[in-house]
C-alpha cells in the first residue's frame, strides 16, 4: 500500500502537498516505487492519507512536470518507464568523488606553477604588508553613504556598469591628485585592481608575448601575465626603480609601479619615466602603470602619474581604493586611452567585471562630499608616523643586523641582512614567533638576486610595531649568531 | 628674470609652495626655462617673490625629487640636461591619438565578431526582457542591511574573499530552495553571473574545444566560450528543452538552462536531465547549469537543480541575485564540485573576481533574516500575474498574428509570427514605436532557425504591459498587411 510508505506531518512548515511531493519523489527515485507502477487515483490516495484531494493532485502534477509521472485525465498516474536507471543520481546516497574527473585548461594548470595568490594563515598579524588600517576608516560616514545610495531608487538603468557620477568624481580626483589626464568615459570601475589586470591581460596578451616587469616586483602582475602564456622578463632595479632593459627587442607590455616601486618604495624620477615611455615601441608596446598606493607620499608632493606624460595613448593606468580606504570596499579601476575606451568597456561587460552599483554610488558621494580626501590626508599623517617609528626602531634595535631602506611613501619597507644569508628560513622563524613578514626573495620575478624582509607599517599601530620589532630583535639575535658562526 | 614668469596667488587653496612647484614644472617642461639653466638661489628667489625661503626650498626639492632639477648643498639648482626632449609629453599640449596604436590580443579582436554584450539605448522601456522590477525591491530593508554591515568593524581579515556567513546562507537556501547539494566551501561569491562564466571558461576551455549550448540560447554564454576560442555547437530544442545532440563525440563542456530554458522558458523534465548527465563523457565533459531565474516558477514547485542529480562532480552551477533581487546588487555565484573547490578559489583570486565585503555581509543578513525568501515569494506572485496579463492581452489583441509560448516560469516569453517572416525588421519598427523587444533570431547560436519576439513581463507593471501591447497591435496590423501583401 502506497499510503503506508508516506508519513505526513501536519505541523511541518513545508505543507502537506510539498511533503507528499517530496516523499513520492524519493520513493520513485530510490526504486521503492517501481518503474511502470500505477499509482492510486488522487481521490483514493486522499482518503487513505486523510488529506484533501487537491493536496494529492498538486503532488501528482508537480511530479509529472518534473518527469517522474505520466498523468492523463481520468487515468491513474504511471511512473515513467526506465526512470530507475536514469535516476541513479537522484537518490540521497552519499556523494562520491568522480573517479574520472574532466581535465582543466592549461591556464588553470599554470596557476599551480605561478604560485600566486599566496595563502595566508587566517589570522592577520603585524607586520603584514600591503594593507590599510581598517581601524582608522570612518565606518559611520561610509555606512551613511551606502545607506543613502541604496535608498536612491533607480529604475532599471543597470546597463550603466560604470556609474557616471563615480567616473566623474574619480576623473577630478585623478587629475588634481595624481596628474592623470582622462575623460570620464576612459575610466572603468572594476571589482578589484587585480580584475583590471585580468582585463588588460585578456585584451593585450597573446601566448608567447614578452612582458617586462620590475624585479623584484608585484607578484600578482607577473602571475597574471604568466598564466596567460606570456614570457615574463624581470628587469633589474637601481635607485630610481626599473632600469633600461638590456633587451634588444621591445616587449608587448611593460608593467611598472613608478609612484612607489613595489616592494622597494623607490620613486621613479621624471627622466626615467620618459625613458620608460621611449622604450615602448610605437605600434607594439603597452605600458601598465600600477599606482596602487600613490596617495601615500610623505616627504614631498606625489609625482604626477606616468600616464600624464604619455602622448601616444599607450599607458593603461591601474588604481584601487583598497589602500586609500579599506580592502573591504573592493573597488579598483582602470584608465584606458581614448581609442580603447569602447573596446575595453565591451570587454569589461563580457567578462562580468562589474562592481556593485550601490557601492559605486556610495563611493561617488564619499568623494564628492570631501570624505575621501579628508581620510587620505588623515591616514597619510598616521602612516608617515608609523613609517618613521618602524625605521627608528629597526635602526635602534636591529641596526647591526638589518639595513632598512626607508621609502618616501607607500605602506611598507624592505630591510636587508647586513651579513647576507637566505631570507626564507628567517621568515619562517619570525612567523613562528608571531611576526608576519615576507621574504624579499619571494618577490623575485626571475631568480632571486636579493634577500631581506618586507615589513608593512601602515596597518599597524605604533605599539604593535614596537612589540613586533622586539620579537624580531630576539629572533634575529639568534640569526646574527648563526650567520657569524657559519662564517667562522 | 625667473620671478617675472611666476604669478603666485595668496588666496589660492593650493598653497604657495604647491603653486610655485607647479609653475616651475610647467616652465621647465614647456622649455621656457632652458635645459642646463641655473636657477636663482632659494634665498634670492624668495626675496624676489616675497615668499618665505622655505616655500622656495620646498619647490626646488620637489622638482629635484621628480627629476627636473639637480640640487646640491650651497649650489644653485640646475635644470637637468636634455630634459627638454625627454619631456615632450609633459607639456599640456592637446592630446593626439597615437598614429601607431599597439595591437590587441586575438581574444579582444574576437569580441567584435562575438557581438555580445549588445548595446542598448540608454533608456529602459517596456517590454525589455531579463530584468527584475527594481521598483518592487525593499530598498529600505536593504539599506538597513548595508548600513549594519558597514558598521560591523572587521579588522583586516579581507583575504576571506568568500564571506563564510553568505556562503552558509546561500548553501542553506540552495539546498532547500533549489535542490543543490553542496558544502559552503564549494560556493564562490562573484561580482556577476557573467564573472562565473569567465571563471569557468578560464579554467576549463582550451582553444579548439567543443562546447554545446542550447540553440536558441543565452548569448552571453556562447560569447564567452567563443571568445576563448571554443567551437560552439548549437543544440536544437524540443518541448523539453535541449535535445540529445546528434554529435558523435562528447564535448568539453555543455551549457544548459534546465530550470527555464533561455529564452523559451521550457522546463527540462528529470528524464531529459539524466540523459544530459549521461551525455557528459566521464573524464572529459563539464556541464554548466545556469539557473539564472530558478526562483520564479509559477505553476508548480520548481524542479530541483540538475546539480543535485550529479553524482560525478561534473556540474558547475551558476546563479545570480540580479533576477531574484535587483540588478544593482551585482552578486553572482558559482557552485563547484568538491574536488575543484581549492583550484577555483585560487583562480577566482587570481582573476580578482571578488565582490564587495559590505555587500556580501549585507546579503547574508538579508537572507538569514528571511527578507530574501519573503521578497521572492512576493514578486513571484506579482510576476505570475504579469505573465498572465501579457499572455491574455497577446491572445486577445494579437492572437491572429502572434503565437505566444507561455512559460511555467521565468521573466519573459517568446511569441512567434503565425505567418512566418523575418523578425529583425519588425523589431526595428516596434522599437521605433516605443516598445523594446528582441528578435528571437538574435538569440540563435548558429544559423537562426526560428523567428519571433522576446518579450519581458517581470519588470513591467500591468498598465505598462497594456500600453505596450496596444502599440504592438497598431504596429503589427501593418506587419500583417505587409506579409499578406507580399504573399499575394
Keyword list:
homodimer, 488 residues, 41% helix, 12% strand
**Low-confidence segments of chain A:** 84-98, 480-488
Mean of pLDDT of chain A:
87
Quaternary structure classification: homodimer
How are the strands of the biggest sheet of chain A laid out side by side? 3-11-10-9-8-4-5
Number of helical regions of chain A: 16
Q: Most extensive interface: pair and counts? A: A-B, 135 and 136 residues
Gyration radius of chain A (Cα, Å) is 31 Å
Q: How many E strands of chain A?
A: 15
Percentage of residues in strands of chain A: 5-15%
Q: How many angstroms separate the termini of chain A?
A: 90 Å
What is the global morphology of chain A? Answer: elongated
User: How does the major sheet of chain A shape up?
Assistant: 7 strands, mixed
Query: Which range best describes the helical content of chain A: under 10%, 10-25%, 25-40%, 40-55%, 55-70% or over 70%?
Result: 40-55%
State the secondary-structure class of chain A.
alpha/beta
Please tell me about this protein's structure:
The structure is a homodimer of 488-residue chains. The first copy, chain A, is elongated. With 488 residues, chain A is of the alpha/beta class. The first copy, chain A, has helices spanning 2-5, 16-29, 42-49, 53-66, 83-86, 106-114, 139-151, 164-178, 193-204, 219-227, 270-279, 341-351, 357-368, 371-398, 424-433, 462-487, and strands spanning 69-70, 78-79, 187-190, 210-214, 231-235, 237-238, 241-242, 253-256, 286-290, 315-320, 332-335, 402-405, 412-417, 438-439, 452-456. In chain A, helix 6 packs antiparallel against helix 10 and helix 7 packs across helix 13 (357-368). Mean pLDDT of chain A is 87; it is low at 84-98 and 480-488. The longest helix of chain A has 28 residues, at 371-398. At the A-B interface, helix 4, helix 6, helix 7, helix 9 and helix 10 of A face helix 4, helix 6, helix 7, helix 9 and helix 10 of B.
Amino acid at each position: 500500500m502506497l499510503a503506508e510508505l508516506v508519513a505526513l506531518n501536519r505541523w511541518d512548515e513545508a505543507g502537506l502537498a510539498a511533503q507528499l511531493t517530496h516523499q513520492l519523489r524519493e520513493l520513485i527515485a530510490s526504486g521503492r516505487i517501481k518503474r511502470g507502477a500505477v499509482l492510486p487515483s488522487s481521490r483514493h490516495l486522499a482518503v487513505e492519507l486523510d488529506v484533501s484531494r487537491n493536496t494529492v493532485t498538486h503532488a501528482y502534477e508537480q511530479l509529472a512536470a518534473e518527469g517522474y509521472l505520466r498523468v492523463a485525465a481520468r487515468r491513474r498516474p504511471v511512473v515513467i518507464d526506465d526512470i530507475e536507471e536514469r535516476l541513479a543520481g537522484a537518490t540521497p546516497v552519499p556523494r562520491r568523488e568522480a573517479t574520472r574527473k574532466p581535465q582543466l585548461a592549461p591556464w588553470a594548470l599554470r596557476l599551480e606553477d605561478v604560485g600566486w595568490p599566496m595563502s595566508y594563515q587566517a589570522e592577520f598579524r603585524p607586520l603584514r604588508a600591503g594593507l590599510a588600517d581598517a581601524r582608522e576608516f570612518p565606518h559611520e560616514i561610509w555606512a551613511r553613504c551606502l545607506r543613502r545610495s541604496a535608498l536612491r531608487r533607480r529604475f532599471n538603468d543597470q546597463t550603466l556598469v560604470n556609474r557616471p557620477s563615480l567616473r566623474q568624481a574619480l576623473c577630478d580626483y585623478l587629475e588634481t591628485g595624481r596628474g592623470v589626464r582622462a575623460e570620464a568615459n576612459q575610466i572603468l570601475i572594476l571589482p578589484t585592481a587585480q580584475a583590471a589586470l585580468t582585463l588588460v591581460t585578456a585584451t593585450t596578451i597573446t601566448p608567447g608575448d614578452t612582458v617586462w616587469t620590475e624585479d623584484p616586483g608585484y607578484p600578482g602582475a607577473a602571475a597574471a601575465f604568466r598564466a596567460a602564456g606570456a614570457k615574463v622578463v624581470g628587469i633589474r632595479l637601481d635607485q630610481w626603480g626599473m632600469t633600461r632593459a638590456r633587451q634588444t627587442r621591445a616587449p608587448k607590455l611593460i608593467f611598472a609601479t613608478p609612484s612607489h616601486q613595489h616592494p622597494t618604495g623607490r620613486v621613479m624620477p621624471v627622466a626615467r619615466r620618459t625613458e620608460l615611455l621611449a622604450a615602448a615601441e610605437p605600434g607594439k608596446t603597452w605600458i601598465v602603470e600600477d599606482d596602487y598606493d600613490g596617495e601615500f607620499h610623505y616627504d614631498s608632493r606625489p609625482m604626477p602619474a606616468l600616464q600624464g606624460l604619455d602622448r601616444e595613448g599607450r599607458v593603461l593606468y591601474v588604481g584601487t581604493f583598497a589602500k586609500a580606504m579599506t580592502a573591504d570596499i573592493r573597488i579598483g579601476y582602470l584608465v584606458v586611452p581614448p581609442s580603447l575606451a569602447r573596446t575595453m568597456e565591451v570587454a569589461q561587460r563580457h567578462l562580468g567585471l562589474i562592481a556593485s552599483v550601490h557601492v559605486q554610488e556610495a563611493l561617488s558621494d564619499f568623494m564628492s562630499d570631501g570624505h575621501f580626501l579628508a581620510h587620505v590626508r588623515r591616514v597619510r599623517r598616521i602612516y608617515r608616523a608609523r613609517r618613521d617609528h618602524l625605521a627608528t626602531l629597526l635602526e635602534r634595535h636591529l641596526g647591526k643586523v638589518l639595513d632598512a631602506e626607508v621609502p618616501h611613501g607607500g605602506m611598507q619597507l624592505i630591510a636587508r641582512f647586513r651579513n647576507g644569508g637566505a631570507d626564507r628560513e628567517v621568515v619562517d622563524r619570525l612567523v613562528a614567533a608571531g611576526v608576519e613578514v615576507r621574504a624579499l626573495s619571494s618577490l623575485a620575478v626571475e631568480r632571486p638576486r636579493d634577500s631581506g624582509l618586507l615589513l608593512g607599517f601602515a596597518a599597524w599601530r605604533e605599539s604593535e610595531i614596537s612589540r613586533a620589532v622586539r620579537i624580531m630583535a630576539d629572533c634575529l639575535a639568534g640569526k646574527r649568531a648563526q650567520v657569524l658562526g657559519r662564517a667562522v
